[in-house]
Amino acid sequence: MAAQPPSPAGSPQAGPAPRPGPNPPTSAERTELYRTLTNPVRRRVLDYLGRCQEANSTSVARALGESTGTTSYHLRKLAEQELIAEIPERSGGRERWWRLLPLDHRPAAPGDRSPEEQAALRQFRAQQLSADIELALRAEEEFAGPDGWVQGSRAGCYMSRPELLQFYDEYLALLRKYGHARADAPDGARLIALRFFALPATPVEVSPDRAS
Q1: How many structural domains are present in the chain?
Q2: Do 182 and 53 contact (CB within 8 A), yes or no?
Q3: Are 38 and 124 in contact (CB under 8 A)?
């Protein structure tokens, strides 16, 4: 989750460099974060805020078909996880307005995860992958040639680890260079879903003499 998602479906919304977080320090807190990100109602709330930018419990309830009590509860929980923030200048009395926060979460190293955290992270990744499959199918259907809105690439090449890390840093720099927040986007700009991952094509093999 190093690059920021277009909606918290795990996905990048480029623009200014995102703040680091939320990155809870304990395994229990990270587990709760992943469970929040896979909770169906909270996912829908986050997706709605991603589209509308600002909302209160009433507008969220109307859009989701839930009660205001339910949406108020989930909005508070999302704020506790630092996934959304209140808009003080719009809030007043019992009416609170909320906005989506940038997401720049980095999972803990595998050795630092509890079994519960690993299971919650795996469920979150599975949900992301399901959404990404739908995006890939859409990309295939909507591709209109080299000058269209849909572009893609698959590649394989040899890189050293330092080269891979430099490549990734430059990819993130390109996101920040060409991406815009919604408020700063030029005329005609559209929200673009981008995905990036890189890993060795085959697992590292340990020779018998090294294994012993």
Answers
A1: 1
A2: yes
A3: yes
